[in-house]
């Protein structure tokens, strides 16, 4: 942030998705960061997520703790993820959902169908129970 303009907003951080590699964890964990919108990286995440659903059988946790904002398109991608796991008869939940993201999920109705937990540990405990 420029010191000359104290009220100037910082630009959004670019979206990124990282699959947490662990042979020990009973669930697959995806860490999402930045602005979850209609960028190429968001759609790449969806494709990787769908491949994960087809190729595995472990529950999936999507950690939104570092997501700064979710647009309607980002929420739609989460909805597509939910449909993929539901059709494959697998489990999925969200962890560490920020207030801004939760607000968007409530507006479009996804908050009613997605399981959400305040921490990754709680998500892991509940999705693998």
Please, could you describe this protein's structure?
- The protein has helices at residues 40-55, 72-87, 99-108, 120-127, and strands at 16-20, 28-36, 60-70, 92-95, 116-117.
- It is of the alpha/beta class and 129 residues long.
- It has a single domain (16-127), classed as Transcription Regulator spoIIAA.
- α1 (40-55) runs parallel beside α2.
- A five-stranded mixed β-sheet has the order 1-2-3-4-5.
- The longest helix has 16 residues, at 40-55.
- The chain is globular, with a radius of gyration of 15 Å.
Helix and strand arrangement:
Elements (H helix, E strand, L loop, with lengths): L15 E5 L7 E9 L3 H16 L4 E11 L1 H16 L4 E4 L3 H10 L7 E2 L2 H8 L2
Parallel strand pairs: 2-3, 3-4, 4-5
Antiparallel strand pairs: 1-2
Helix pairs in contact: 1-2
Round the Cα radius of gyration to an integer and report it.
Answer: 15 Å
Strand order of the largest sheet: 1-2-3-4-5
What is the β-strand count? 5
> Which fold does the CATH topology refer to?
Transcription Regulator spoIIAA
Number of helices: 4
Task: Supply the CATH architecture.
Answer: 2-Layer Sandwich
Strand content: 15-25%
Q: From the helix content, strand content and strand pairing, which structural class follows? A: alpha/beta
What sequence of helices (H) and strands (E) makes up the elements? EEHEHEHEH
Shape: globular
């Amino acid at each position: 942030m420029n010191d000359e303009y104290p009220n100037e907003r910082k630009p959004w951080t670019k979206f990124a998705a990282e699959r947490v590699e662990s042979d020990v964890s009973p669930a697959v964990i995806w860490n999402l960061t930045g602005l979850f919108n209609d960028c190429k990286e968001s759609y790449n995440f969806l494709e990787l997520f769908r491949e994960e659903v087809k190729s595995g059988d472990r529950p999936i946790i999507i950690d939104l703790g570092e997501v700064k904002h979710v647009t309607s398109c980002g929420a739609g991608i989460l909805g597509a993820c939910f449909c993929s796991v539901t059709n494959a008869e697998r489990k999925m939940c969200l962890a560490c959902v920020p207030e801004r993201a939760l607000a968007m999920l409530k507006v479009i109705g996804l908050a009613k169908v997605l399981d959400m937990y305040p921490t990754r540990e709680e998500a892991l405990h509940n999705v693998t129970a």
